[in-house]
Task: inverse folding
């Protein structure tokens, strides 16, 4: 299994800041593309591109769950955001698996090409969020523009939680 | 009461009517007059809205008069007067007639409640006291049996003590005697032996002081023929020797002496009529008494200093300071009086009470209190301080009484009273010295609980080994104590003995280690219980409640020491309550039981019970324990899991190698065969062309074999083939051996994993106290009665999982009491027992833990659920909805059938929260309701990681593992086994027909068209009560797997147990076929995103913002509030709180007063100045008790000012009230 590590030193994630901090330094972010959409991920988060990893598919789950993969002994779910966001499926030859975070919090998703490293200074913040798929709307905290491409900053953790949640039928009997 | 009467006129001048009323409300609540508290709060609300022209002063004066009247004489009439006042039209109180009626009821109820208790305790003569002597006379056997048991118990304690001091000989002697007494026939033991036993403990004491003399006496005692100790001369000699060695080796050091003093000598009926032994020690005792008395005097002096410091706080002219300090002085003085009395200074106590009368007079006319008055008090105190050290001097008494007749006192002492006291003091001056050792302990009891008394700090030189042992024992013992105390309430005298014993043990171990908090509390508890046991009287209801509180506090302390939770913050209050009780009991004895049927009759039965309790527990060899960080265990666990996976990978490889070897062997056989053929051809058919090339003319071809290269080659070929086969057999042998090794390794790995798993396992019983506490608390809040029984407590569960289950279980309990259990009257009417019953059952069910919580309440009210669903618009009025559908509604976020106004608990905790938490943990929740008979909630929680046998199967393109869970049988079927009836395929097997489903259908995978009619693997799966045949496409393997959870994002997927990493490194999802069968009917649409409904219901709970700079305080409050069903966020100081308030709007703020950066008052002022959060209720919890702080806080706009330690119930009630007010 070849793994291309993308861990870069960045600001340590100290959780949600109580007082919004002025951005005093230029930050690098990862940009990944899913169909026509671009997403940004802080470089403080451990990310890696997975190559030649076999995804084990699962029946009877949400169609956007491609399956599971074994990443160094951890079970990692693979999400197909193209399905969720109704984007054109990626070219199977070009698409890559991109894992966000590690350990038991790791999740993987299909991206259209290798991730790009963006400079936060070159991204223009948008006043308003563009019109997005309703499911995504709630999880996007900010949007930027660069050369006509909109880059969204989503809260992947919450988004994945929602995507991974399966409605349970409660077992009920009445006498 | 007097305090309220005093405070009102005082505060009136300050002009803020709302704060006056607020104070009145607080004080009423403190006194237990909740009705009056409510009435005051209603007024507070109304007053602010009154038109400016209203004559507030006259209105208020009338009100305070009424309130004072009510407090002075809380009767139905005064309650009526209050209600009449509240109904005045000019006040315009927005309350309905019913509400007024309820308030009146509350007022009347309050009026009766405290009085009933007090008078019952004071007026009723003690029936037991008059009865006991008769019992003593008539049944002397019972007496002997009981006192004997008391002796035995005492000896065992002495033995423990001796062992702790290192006097093993003495320990043996004690145990021998105890054993002998237990064996002895009652009749055989003469009364003289029993009376002699009284000196046994004194012998023990003597041993500490003068071992050599004591040893002889002890041995002599043991040799008494009546005791019948089965020991030979040499054995006695051995014991004697052992005792001598121990005494020489250790010597009676100071610590040993102190420990000895802690022994409850009260156990021993002290009779000083035997002269054989008493003479021997009389000298020692008089010497020993002196320091004791000195200590007593020292303690009393300490108390006077406290009184003094209270007085010194007084600033003349500042009426509030005078008021407060005088009140404190009065309280301190009362305690001092009690202490003096118990110490034997009855005269001094009387004088103190007299002074206190004067103080009360001062308090009534606070404005008239002058510097001269203060001087007078201080002067008197100085006299007391002079008197105490020299109380033996008869003239000293003159000192303290001389000033009392002075005209300066508002209530001067009458001369005849004075001379009476003087006489008494003179008589006492000698008698104080004669106080027995037993009383010394009680007299030394302090009147006030200090922070130091409840401190759980470990001494600097703590013995780590002892501490470890204590930490092991502590939870068990505190729990035992708690259980015993609760059983005591049901009238079990046996429980009383247990409680006493456990309290003693706890005290001993806490003292040994040096944890003062536990030692002091248990010491006082033991004293109370000892008195109860000696008096053969069970504690009354109020005392029982105090004991239960103390037991809870002990448990909390134990938890704190284990590092599970912060130290209990009510410890000081609890200790104070216990101290007050202990002092009261010292003074007046045990109050009579105020509930019926609690008296123990002195029958043989209780003696028998006692015996069974005191049976000797074989001392188990102590195991050394280690405390290891949890993540280390987790790591080990993960590693062992990986090991198992690797092992199965190796096994897999081995299996493949074996298969390959078999092919090789086959090939070798083939080769062998071929070479044999070749040989034949060469030899027999002479294909070598021997004849042609024959060279020797002299021999016939048969006479001489002629060999050529072909021969040799074919021979060698055969040999090589045989060798290869041999070698392959060797390899096979090796592989088999390797198989064994791997097999052995696998077993070892599993064992390792199990042992590691065991370190994480804790028994369910460990959370039982917390659940019981939650139930008691909810019962108190709702006013309903219920008990809780747990079964399956012995079950061992992963500790993380158990702790994560506590929260949902608490919710369930609260729900059961709040929504399920009917109130007492309704229950009786329905023919149910007055007390509700809730049972929680823990069971292991395959890979799950099944927890069912069953109550015997009213069950789900489907009409109400329907109504609520319609109100919320999720159900159209004419829409059909089955009960199943309706049940699903109550799991919706924030769904409540109760409307706001009738919501009694108001915590808004519904089943939705439990559901959310359970699902988050990967579990499922089932509801089974029986109308009018109760509700059972079943939680199924998956175990975090487990092993299972599984079949590896294909379902269409997917590879899945099928766990063995629920699978009855695996069989191969032919086409003949199937039949179709009513369009449903059936499998016939031994005259039974099972419905057939294919796995592909269950998984919504396209059907394999050939499958239904060809041979295939069929699983017979237990599905509830039925068995269903599940048809598989194909089975590829059968193996052991380790099932892992899906992890953080997927949590639980219906129909799956988890996933397993296979030998080839790929992942196979593990199916839970029974669950698939259950859920296949459910229409959950996988394709729509609408199916995602993940709204965290917890965020809909009332949110409380906690602001405190102390971490432990924050944690304690967080736990309390979360247990009570609130969502909490916390901040370390005002600034942090202000920042948080910009983002979140909590429902209430709890704040400390003093904090760095921004204090509580500034924070409150900030809140009140912001329009958006202006009305946010703020409760201040502080240790500042002065009026000044209170006024300042109230000026800033806080709603309540609570002084630490805060009673949990009180805090919750206040929060409740504020939040309800802010909603309406």
Result:
């Amino acid at each position: 299994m070849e793994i291309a590590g993308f861990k870069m030193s960045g600001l340590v994630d100290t959780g949600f800041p109580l007082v919004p901090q002025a951005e005093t330094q230029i930050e690098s972010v990862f940009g990944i593309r899913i169909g026509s959409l671009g997403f940004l991920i802080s470089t403080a988060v451990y990310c890696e591109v997975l190559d030649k990893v076999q995804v084990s598919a699962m029946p009877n789950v949400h169609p956007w769950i491609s399956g599971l993969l074994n990443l160094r002994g951890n079970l990692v779910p693979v999400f197909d955001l193209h399905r969720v966001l109704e984007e054109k499926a990626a070219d199977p030859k070009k698409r890559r698996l991109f894992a966000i975070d590690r350990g038991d919090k790791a999740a993987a998703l299909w991206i259209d090409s290798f991730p790009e490293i963006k400079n936060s200074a070159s991204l223009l913040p948008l006043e308003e969020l563009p019109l997005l798929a309703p499911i995504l709307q709630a999880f996007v905290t900010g949007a930027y523009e660069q050369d006509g491409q909109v880059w969204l900053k989503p809260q992947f953790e919450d988004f994945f939680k929602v995507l991974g949640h399966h409605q349970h039928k409660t077992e009920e009997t009445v006498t | 009461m007097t305090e309220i009467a005093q405070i009102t006129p005082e505060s009136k001048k300050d002009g803020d009517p709302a704060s006056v009323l607020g104070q009145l409300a607080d004080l009423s609540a403190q006194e237990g007059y909740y009705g009056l508290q409510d009435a005051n709060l209603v007024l507070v609300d109304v007053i602010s809205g009154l038109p400016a022209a209203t004559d507030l002063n006259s209105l208020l004066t009338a009100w305070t008069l009424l309130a004072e009247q009510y407090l002075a004489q809380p009767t139905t009439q005064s309650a009526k007067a209050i209600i009449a006042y509240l109904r005045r039209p000019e006040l315009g109180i927005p309350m309905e007639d019913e509400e007024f009626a309820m308030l009146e009821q509350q007022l009347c109820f309050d009026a009766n409640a405290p009085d009933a208790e007090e008078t019952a305790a004071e007026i009723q003569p003690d029936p037991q006291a008059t009865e006991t002597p008769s019992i003593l006379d008539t049944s002397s056997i019972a007496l002997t049996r009981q006192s004997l048991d008391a002796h035995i118990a005492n000896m065992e304690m002495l033995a423990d003590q001796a062992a702790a001091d290192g006097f093993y000989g003495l320990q043996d002697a004690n145990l021998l005697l105890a054993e002998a007494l237990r064996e002895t026939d009652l009749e055989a033991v003469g009364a003289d032996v029993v009376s002699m036993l009284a000196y046994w403990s004194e012998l023990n004491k003597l041993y500490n002081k003068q071992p050599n003399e004591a040893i002889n006496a002890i041995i002599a005692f043991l040799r008494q023929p009546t005791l019948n100790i089965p020991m030979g001369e040499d054995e006695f000699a051995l014991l004697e020797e052992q005792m001598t060695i121990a005494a020489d080796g250790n010597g009676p050091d100071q610590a040993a002496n102190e420990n000895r003093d802690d022994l409850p000598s009260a156990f021993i009926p002290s009779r000083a009529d035997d002269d054989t032994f008493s003479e021997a020690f009389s000298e020692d005792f008089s010497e020993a008494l002196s320091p004791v008395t000195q200590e007593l005097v020292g303690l009393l002096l300490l108390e006077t200093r406290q009184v003094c410091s209270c007085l010194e706080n007084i600033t003349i002219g500042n009426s509030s300071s005078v008021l407060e300090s005088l009140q404190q002085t009065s309280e301190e003085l009362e305690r001092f009086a009690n202490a003096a009395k118990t110490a034997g200074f009855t005269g001094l106590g009387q004088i103190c009470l007299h002074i206190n009368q004067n103080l009360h007079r001062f308090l009534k006319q606070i404005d008239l209190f002058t510097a001269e008055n203060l001087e007078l008090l201080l002067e008197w105190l100085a006299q007391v301080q002079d008197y105490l050290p020299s109380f033996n001097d008869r003239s000293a008494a003159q000192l303290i009484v001389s000033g009392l007749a002075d005209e300066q006192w508002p209530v001067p002492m009458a001369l005849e009273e004075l001379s009476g006291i003087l006489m008494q003091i003179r008589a006492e001056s000698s008698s104080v010295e004669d106080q027995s050792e037993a009383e010394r302990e009680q007299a030394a009891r302090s009147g006030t609980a200090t922070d130091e008394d409840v401190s759980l700090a470990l001494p600097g030189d703590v013995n780590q080994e002892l501490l470890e042992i204590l930490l092991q024992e502590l939870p068990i013992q505190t729990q035992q104590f708690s259980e015993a105390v609760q059983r005591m309430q049901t009238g079990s005298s046996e429980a009383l003995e247990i409680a006493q014993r456990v309290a003693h043990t706890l005290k001993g171990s806490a003292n040994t280690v040096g944890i003062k908090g536990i030692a002091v509390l248990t010491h006082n508890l033991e004293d109370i219980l000892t008195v109860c046991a000696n008096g053969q009287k069970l504690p009354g209801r109020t005392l029982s409640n105090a004991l239960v509180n103390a037991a809870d506090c002990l448990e909390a302390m134990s938890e704190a020491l284990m590092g599970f939770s912060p130290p209990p913050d009510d410890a000081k209050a609890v200790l104070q309550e216990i101290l007050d009780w202990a002092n009261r009991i010292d003074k007046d004895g045990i109050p009579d039981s105020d509930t019926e049927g609690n008296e123990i009759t002195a029958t043989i039965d209780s003696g028998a019970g006692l015996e069974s309790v005191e049976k000797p527990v074989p001392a188990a060899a102590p195991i050394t324990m280690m405390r290891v960080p949890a993540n280390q265990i987790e790591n080990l666990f993960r590693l062992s899991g990986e090991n198992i996976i690797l092992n199965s990978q190796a096994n897999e490889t081995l299996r493949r190698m074996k298969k390959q070897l078999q092919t090789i062997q086959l090939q070798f056989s083939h080769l062998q065969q071929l070479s044999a053929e070749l040989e034949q051809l060469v030899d027999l058919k002479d294909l070598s062309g021997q004849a042609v090339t024959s060279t020797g003319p002299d021999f016939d071809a048969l006479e001489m074999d002629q060999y050529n290269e072909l021969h040799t080659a074919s021979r060698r070929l055969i040999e090589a083939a045989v060798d290869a086969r041999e070698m392959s057999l060797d390899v096979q042998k090796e592989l088999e051996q390797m198989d064994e090794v791997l097999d052995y390794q696998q077993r070892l790995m599993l064992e390792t994993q199990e042992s590691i798993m065991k370190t994480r396992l804790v028994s369910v019983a460990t959370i039982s106290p917390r659940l019981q506490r939650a139930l008691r608390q909810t019962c108190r809040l709702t006013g309903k009665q219920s008990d809780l029984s747990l079964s399956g407590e012995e079950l061992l569960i992963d500790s993380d999982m158990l702790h994560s289950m506590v929260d949902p279980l608490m919710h369930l309990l609260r729900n059961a009491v709040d929504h399920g259990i009917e109130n007492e009257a309704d229950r009786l009417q329905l023919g149910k027992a007055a007390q509700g019953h809730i049972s929680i059952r823990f069971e292991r069910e395959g890979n799950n833990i099944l927890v069912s919580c069953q109550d015997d309440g009213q069950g789900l009210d489907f009409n109400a659920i329907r109504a609520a669903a319609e109100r919320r618009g999720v159900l159209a009025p004419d829409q059909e909805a089955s009960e199943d559908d309706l049940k699903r509604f109550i799991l919706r976020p924030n769904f409540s059938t109760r409307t706001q106004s009738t919501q009694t608990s108001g915590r808004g905790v519904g089943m939705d929260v439990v559901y959310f938490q359970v699902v988050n943990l990967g579990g499922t929740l089932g509801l089974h309701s029986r109308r009018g008979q109760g509700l059972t909630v079943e939680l199924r929680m998956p175990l975090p990681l487990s092993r299972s046998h599984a079949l590896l199967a294909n379902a269409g393109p997917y590879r899945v593992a099928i766990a063995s869970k629920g699978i009855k049988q695996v069989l191969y079927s032919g086409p003949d086994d199937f039949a179709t009836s009513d369009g449903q395929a059936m499998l016939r097997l031994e005259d039974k027909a099972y419905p057939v489903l294919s796995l592909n259908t269950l998984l919504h995978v396209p059907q394999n068209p050939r499958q239904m009619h060809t041979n295939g693997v069929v699983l017979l799966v237990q599905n509830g009560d039925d068995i269903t045949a599940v048809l598989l496409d194909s089975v590829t393997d059968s193996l052991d797997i380790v099932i892992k959870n899906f992890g953080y994002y997927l949590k639980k997927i219906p129909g799956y147990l988890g996933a397993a990493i296979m030998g080839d490194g790929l992942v196979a999802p593990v199916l839970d076929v029974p669950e698939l069968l259950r859920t296949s009917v459910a229409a959950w649409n996988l394709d729509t995103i609408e199916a995602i409904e993940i709204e965290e219901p917890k965020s809909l709970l009332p949110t409380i913002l906690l602001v405190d700079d102390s971490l432990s305080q924050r944690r304690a409050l967080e736990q309390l509030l979360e247990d009570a069903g609130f969502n909490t966020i916390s901040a370390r100081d005002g600034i942090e709180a202000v920042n948080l308030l910009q983002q979140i709007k909590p429902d209430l703020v709890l704040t400390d007063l003093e904090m760095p950066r921004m204090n509580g008052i500034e924070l409150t002022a900030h809140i009140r100045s912001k329009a958006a959060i202006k009305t946010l209720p703020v409760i201040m919890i502080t240790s500042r008790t002065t009026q000044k702080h209170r006024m300042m806080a109230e000026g800033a706009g806080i709603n309540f000012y609570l002084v630490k330690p805060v009673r949990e119930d009180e805090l919750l009630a206040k929060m409740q009230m504020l939040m309800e007010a802010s909603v309406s």
Observations:
- Residues 630-683 of chain B form the longest helix (54 residues).
- The two ends of chain B are 32 Å apart (CA to CA).
